[in-house]
Amino acid sequence: MLILIAAVIAFVIKTFVAQAFFIPSGSMIPQLEINDRVVVSKLAYRLHAPRRGDIVVFDCPPLATCPIVGKGGNPVARVLRFVGEKVGIVQPSTDEFIKRVIGLPGETVEGRAGKVFVDGHPLDEPYLKPGVVTSDFPPVHLGSDLLFLMGDNRPNSSDSRSFGPVERRRVVGEATTRAWPPPRAGFL
């Protein structure tokens, strides 16, 4: 009975409060390395809107190439995988992306001369490695519910430059803490 109660508590916490996510790619280097684990607050954006510079986890956008793990096949296996992910005994799928908020609703974002411009002004990006150059991309005006998201490792990131702005409803939550590996643990 105690195991069942613990599983229900873990399920509720991971569904509504916070969840750990695995970093499968190098798109957020140097902030996040491959195989890092981050804790994502699912409550953050119920309390405030996303802010520029936040690191967010979001569901795979429609125009992105996403590895859809566990979406087909046996319905019982899908349910068991879902429950296993929620209680932390199964490695989560990689159907989510993690990127940094660059552009907010109502803004115009553009890449030119190796930099990002927001509403015509160059964006200060202290989180990028020195010498990182952003590829040029045309101005993108963001609607009232859209975010422009980019990886910190610009040459190695599939982000809003390729799949377009992301609807806020697709955002799972804000990455707040690096929990693994222990020597690199800390707030983001």
Please render the helix and strand layout as text.
Elements: H1 2-16, E1 18-22, E2 37-41, H2 44-47, E3 55-59, H3 75-87, E4 96-103, E5 108-112, E6 115-118, E7 121-122, E8 137-141, E9 146-150, H4 160-163, E10 166-167, E11 171-180, E12 186-187
Antiparallel strand pairs: 1-2, 2-11, 3-4, 3-11, 4-9, 5-6, 5-8, 6-7, 9-10, 11-12
Q: What's this entry about, in short?
A:
The chain has 188 residues and is an alpha+beta fold.
Structure description:
The chain has 188 residues and is of the alpha+beta class. The chain has a single domain, classed as Umud Fragment, subunit A (Ribbon). It has helices at residues 2-16, 44-47, 75-87, 160-163; strands at 18-22, 37-41, 55-59, 96-103, 108-112, 115-118, 121-122, 137-141, 146-150, 166-167, 171-180, 186-187. Strands 1, 2, 3, 4, 9, 10, 11 and 12 form an eight-stranded antiparallel sheet that branches. Strands 7-6-5-8 form a four-stranded antiparallel sheet, with no helix packed on it. Residues 68-73 have low confidence and may be disordered.
Total strands: the figure is: 12
- The arrangement of helices and strands along the chain is HEEHEHEEEEEEHEEE
Low-confidence stretches: 68-73
- Let me know the CATH homologous superfamily: Umud Fragment, subunit A
The proportion of strand residues reads 25-35%
